[in-house]
Each structure stands twice: as structure tokens, then as C-alpha cells.
Amino acid sequence: MRFVPTSLPGAVLIELEPRADDRGMFARAFCAREFSSNGLEMSYVQANISTNTRVGTVRGMHFQREPHAEVKLVRCVKGAIFDVIVDMREGSLTRHRWFGAELSEDNGAMMYVPKGFAHGYQTLTDGATVYYLVSAFYAPESESGLRFNDPKLNIVWPRVASEISDKDAKWPLL
């Protein structure tokens, strides 16, 4: 695995190092030793999967507040998504800045989302499926979010939003 720092301190894009032959491909997607040596979370308590019917679907921007803040390790296992994180950490020099990257079944890349970041994505293909690990149990009382189209964030989504839940469309503006 290659751990590529993003423009937001603590957030990392993780690229696989596939080994391919006539049978197909093999790559490690997690190694506690490598995650630890890069200062990343190694303990996850929940795994989630999200399927999406149509291209342009937006999910997010979600996060959990303390004391239930969570790290996420996000991977697109079918199709492709544009994955976005926003730094929400008090006192951070990059507070309210965003970073986005394409995650796809082809590139195998993963987004490491630290505590204190909002997370969301937009599907780039029909039928995109996202699998992610979280370091804290879901706590409804700590759930929060940001509006995906907040003008202060100015996130540049690659497509027009074709589907978004009522809940995600009503998150507050900054």
C-alpha cells in the first residue's frame, strides 16, 4: 500500500499495490503494521455497505460529534465515486476546506477520513457500491452533517446531483 497525504493534514489517500498474473490480481487492503507506522487508526468496530442506483447520487456530508467521533476507511468496490472530505476540526488551519478524489473498483484507492472530518460522495456510475469501516459505533445523538452544496464550502462536484435524501438536503449551512 502507498499512503499518500492529502492537502488536509491527517487525511490520507491509500493506493493499493496490486500484483497481477493470468489468474487476476491480489493486493493488501489493510495491514495493522503499515497503518500503525503511518499513524492511522487500526481498530474498526463496524463495516457498512452502501449501494446506489443512479449516477449523480450524493450521500453526505456526514460526521459524528464527540464523544462518538469516528475514523472512516472508505472504498468503492463496484463502479466509481467522487469521495469528498471536509475538515471540521476546531482550530485547524484547514478548517472548512475540502478534498476530493475518485475511488473506483478499477483504481482500488481508499480514503482515510480522520476524526473531525465530514464525509460524503457522489456516484460517477450507475450501481456504485461503497464499503467502509468505522472506528466508533453509530450514535444517533451525535449524528451531524453539512449541506453538500454549501456555498461557503464550494465543493466542485463532477456531476449535477440527481438524487439526494431529504435529510442530506436539509443539513444546515455553515
Structure, described:
This protein is mainly β. The protein has a single domain, classed as Jelly Rolls (Sandwich), CATH 2.60.120.10. The protein contains 2 helices and 13 strands; from the N terminus they run E-E-E-E-H-E-E-E-E-E-E-E-E-E-H. The protein has a 6-stranded antiparallel β-sheet, with no helix packed on it.
Give me the oligomer status: single chain
Mean pLDDT: 96
CATH superfamily: Jelly Rolls
In spatial order, strands of the major sheet run 1-2-10-7-12-5
Shape: globular
Count, helices:
2
Largest sheet: 6 strands, antiparallel
Number of strands: 13
The CATH architecture comes to Sandwich
- CATH-derived topology: Jelly Rolls
Q: In terms of per-residue confidence, which ranges show pLDDT below 50 for 5 or more consecutive residues?
A: none
| Main CATH class | Mainly Beta
Structural class: mainly beta
